[in-house]
Amino acid sequence: MPDNAAIVRQFINEVLNQGDVDGAGRFVWEDVVEQVPFPGQGPGLTGLQDVLRGMRSAFPDMHWTVEEQLADGDSVLTRFVWTGIHHGEFLGVPPTGRPVTVWGMVIDRLVDGRIKDTRILMDTLGLMMQLGAIPG
Questions:
Q1: Cα–Cα distance between 56 and 119 in angstroms, integer?
Q2: Contact present, 54 and 85 (Cβ < 8 Å)
Q3: How would you class 72 by CB atoms within 10 Å of its CB: exposed for 0-12, middle for 13-18, buried for 19 or more?
Q4: From edge to edge, which strands make up the β-sheet containing 114-122?
Q5: Closest CA to 4 of 120, 110, 106, 119
Q6: How far, in Å, CA of 42 to CA of 123, rounded?
Q7: H or E stretch including 5?
Q8: Which residue, 26, 41, 71, 106, could crosslink 5 as a Cys pair with Cβ 3.0–4.6 Å?
């Protein structure tokens, strides 16, 4: 039986932190379902990769840290913090040069060692406040 939490951590390290967005298919099924998609996010692996490329373009130094993980059967909950400096447009906000720290949680369900569906809950309001798009 695969160690699903370790697979999620490897995805975070290789795809999110090292920027190997093209390699996401090693960890995610082609027909992955994002339960809470980003605005404009397309379906499946391609939609996920587009979002990740956009995030890396906006925050090229983006780094995710796993704060806590809980695994239950085929599901893994990961509490995370990601940081980066805003160097490109993100969700309609032009580059600000501001550093951000964003907390969140993601629940991934894995099938045969790859993510089949995912639900990310992230402090987008706090992110927008840090970028100055919403008054604090």
A1: 20
A2: no
A3: exposed
A4: 28-34, 114-122, 99-111, 75-85, 63-72
A5: 110
A6: 21
A7: helix 4-11
A8: 71
Determine the Cα–Cα distance for residues 108 and 111; give it in Å rounded to an integer.
10
- For residue range 57-113, list pLDDT tens digits in order: 999 999 999 999 999 999 999 999 999 999 999 999 999 999 999 999 999 999 999
Which one, of 113, 116, 106, 1, lies nearest residue 64 by Cα?
A: 106
Classify burial at 112, counting beta carbons within 10 Å of its beta carbon; exposed 0-12, middle 13-18, buried 19 or more.
exposed
Is the separation of the CB atoms in 58 and 88 below 8 Å?
yes
Do residues 53 and 60 lie in contact, with contact meaning Cβ atoms separated by under 8 Å? no
Contacts for 89 with CB less than 8 Å, ≥ 6 apart = 57, 58, 95
